[in-house]
Amino acid sequence: MTSGKKTGLVGEQRISAFFTITKTGEIANIKVRAPHPLLEREAYRIVRALPKANPGTKDGKPVNVTFFLPINFNIED
């Protein structure tokens, strides 16, 4: 858990993570937006830790699919 003193933030912080699940099921093109670089790094780590996924399909063929994942961190003093 990140402390409020380290980040200058307190309370619930919403982080936006965007990523693509490729045709092979890998996580790629990760982009994270957060109010502090420490939170961005942690959100990036969380997305990288996701397991390999089943790719999306269109007309029976695998396709890349972009996802949005909201992540909420609750930061205490």
UniProtKB/TrEMBL annotation:
Residues 18-75 form the TonB C-terminal domain. Coiled coil: none annotated. SUPFAM superfamilies: TolA/TonB C-terminal domain (SSF74653). It holds the Pfam family TonB_C. One of its GO terms (biological process) is transmembrane transport. This is Energy transducer TonB. It comes from Lacinutrix neustonica.
